[in-house]
Design brief:
ABC transporter transmembrane region fold; Rossmann fold; 8 strands; elongated; ABC-type oligopeptide transporter activity
């Protein structure tokens, strides 16, 4: 941005000085500048479209690589190395073809800018010579005007490549700003009612729900369920029938299309979202560990927890003995790999997902 402003401002000053010195030569800027701007604008518009396409191709390639590396054992198990490489090569081939086209457009665009610039040089010198010959302007003033116009054209052409950078930034930031400007329907910043004491009665009334990305595939149709506080309930069904969806709706990751979900007789849409989620403890179907120590991960549920509370939580989950056998115990660094371990506590079956790996 600084480079562009510097060159463009120098060009404007040069044009003003040219008008002051010799208006005949200065008038040429009214012809030269539109020509340069038309060529530059066409070049920039073309590069913006290609930059957006490149961003999409890079995203597709990154997804292929990420999926392959994160499931590398599965790829090896099904002898899918060649298939993964073909997918990667296919994505890279798209980028290669786009790069060749982009190089051609860039060369043509910058070449046209140079052609217009040199043509403006010739025209400016010719007009300046005519003005001196006809004695309508002094030689010194004409030379000053010519030099300023030529210098201005040089600075304007120097500013032209910055348009490509702006186009790339605009293409890359378009999706980011779209997300930033989006107003979510469910926001943790919204204020709502805070329950002073949560008993835990859950009631789901005639809930209909469809995921926004699959509106033609309804998940819940008139689903109703009552879970009294302290009662153990198991939702059993085939994959995709909506078991996890019910939990997501209770945690208000989504809002039901119709129907109500009540906790202690209060509609969860009227409750403070932060307070609601703080009072729900869950182990998701696909849990994650964050970079840091075991203690750091345990504190995610309560950031201000003391060491004693962390230890007590681990004992309740029946993993304290396992953690204590690690070299650094609760200070052991963990990594984002997950293993499953089943434990039984107070006749309640729960899934714990931990893997701790020493550095």
């Amino acid at each position: 941005m600084g480079h562009f402003i510097s060159n463009f401002s120098t060009f404007l000053v040069a044009v003003i000085v040219a008008f002051v010195c010799c208006w005949e030569v200065g008038m040429l800027s009214l012809l030269v500048v539109p020509m340069l701007l038309v060529v530059g604008a066409t070049y920039a518009k073309t590069m913006i479209g290609m930059s957006m396409t490149r961003t999409a191709f890079v995203s597709e390639t990154t997804t292929v690589v990420e999926q392959t590396l994160s499931h590398i054992k599965t790829v090896f198990s099904f002898v899918g190395e060649n298939s993964a490489m073909k997918s990667f090569v296919k994505c890279m081939d798209k980028q290669y073809k786009l790069s060749k086209k982009e190089a051609f457009i860039k060369g043509l665009g910058l070449g046209m800018l140079q052609i217009v610039t040199f043509c403006s040089y010739s025209l400016t010198i010719y007009v300046g010579a005519v003005a001196v010959t006809r004695r309508s302007a002094k030689a010194g003033e004409t030379i000053a005007a010519v030099i300023n116009i030529l210098s201005g054209a040089i600075y304007l052409s120097n500013a032209a490549p910055d348009l490509q950078i702006f186009s790339q930034a605009k293409a890359a930031g378009k999706e980011v700003f779209k997300v930033i400007k989006r107003n979510p329907v469910i926001s943790s910043e919204s204020n709502g009612r805070i329950l002073e004491k949560v008993i835990g009665d859950i009631e789901i009334r005639e809930v209909h729900f469809t995921y926004p990305s699959r509106e033609d595939n309804p998940i819940l149709q008139g689903f109703s369920l009552t879970v009294p506080a302290g009662k153990i309930v198991a939702l059993v069904g085939s994959s995709g029938c909506g078991k996890s969806t019910v939990i997501s709706l209770v945690q208000r990751f989504y809002d039901a299309m119709s129907g109500d979900i009540l906790i202690d007789g209060q509609n969860i849409k009227e409750l403070d979202l932060k307070s609601l989620r703080r009072n729900i403890g869950s182990v998701s179907q696909e849990p994650s560990l964050f970079s840091g120590t075991i203690s750091d991960n345990l504190r995610i549920g309560k950031m201000g927890a003391t060491d004693e509370e962390v230890t007590e939580a681990a004992k309740t989950a029946n993993v304290h003995t396992f953690i204590s056998k690690l070299p650094n115990q609760y200070s052991t660094e963990v990594r984002l790999y997950v293993h499953k371990a089943r434990t039984v506590k107070n006749s309640q079956t729960s899934l714990l997902f931990y893997v701790c790996e020493s550095n």
